[in-house]
Design a protein that fits this description.
- By secondary structure, this protein is mainly alpha-helical.
- Helix content is 62%, strand content 8%.
- The protein has a single domain, classed as Arc Repressor Mutant, subunit A (Orthogonal Bundle).
- It contains six helices and three strands; from the N terminus they run ααβααββαα.
- A hairpin with a 7-residue loop joins strand 2 and strand 3.
- Helix 1 crosses helix 5.
C-alpha cells in the first residue's frame, strides 16, 4: 500500500505510471502534442498562447493575476510579455493609480492573431472531444477542477 510505512519504516512508492503527477504530465503531453504543430506554424510558444488566450477573456489585467491565471511563473511572464509586446500582440503599461502595477491588454493585432487561428484551434479541440466523448471530457474537467479545489483549500477533516 502506498503512503504507509513498510516493515523497514520507509514509505512505499507507487509505480510511476500510477502516480497523479506523472499521469497528469502524460495527459498534458498527449493533449499538447495535438496543438503544438498549430503553435509552431504561427510562431507562438505554449506559454505565449496561454497568455493571449487569458487576455482575450480578461480584457485587461495586472501581471500578477495574469501569471496566476495563465499558470506561468512571474519571472517567465516578464520575458513573455516583452516578446508579445515587441510583436505588437499585447500592450503593457503602468497602472496610473498604482505605478507598481503593470496592466496588460490584448492589442487589436493580438485579437486579429487569435481570430486567424481560433478556427484551427477549435477544430483540434473538437477532435480531442470527439476522441474522448463530450460527456467524458466534461467529467474529466469537473474532476480536475475538484482536484484543484480540494488541494488548494485549507485542510478539511473529512471529504466525501
Amino acid at each position: 500500500m502506498t503512503g504507509s510505512p513498510g516493515g523497514d519504516g520507509h514509505f512505499a512508492l507507487a509505480e510511476t505510471h500510477r502516480t497523479l503527477p506523472i499521469a497528469l504530465l502524460r495527459a498534458r503531453e498527449a493533449v499538447m502534442d495535438r496543438f503544438r504543430p498549430l503553435l509552431k506554424r504561427h510562431n507562438v510558444t505554449e506559454q505565449q498562447w496561454r497568455v493571449l488566450r487569458v487576455l482575450r477573456e480578461l480584457v485587461e489585467t495586472d501581471a500578477t493575476a495574469l501569471a496566476h491565471t495563465a499558470c506561468i511563473l512571474p519571472p517567465s511572464l516578464t520575458r513573455i510579455l516583452k516578446s508579445l509586446d515587441a510583436a505588437g500582440l499585447v500592450s503593457v503599461a503602468r497602472d496610473s493609480r498604482d505605478g507598481r502595477r503593470m496592466l496588460v491588454t490584448l492589442t487589436d493585432d493580438g485579437h486579429d492573431f487569435l481570430n486567424r487561428i481560433s478556427a484551427e484551434s477549435a477544430a483540434i479541440y473538437a477532435d480531442v472531444e470527439h476522441r474522448i466523448g463530450p460527456d467524458r471530457l466534461s467529467r474529466i474537467l469537473d474532476e480536475l477542477e475538484y482536484l484543484q479545489d480540494a488541494l488548494s483549500a485549507p485542510e478539511v477533516a473529512e471529504r466525501p
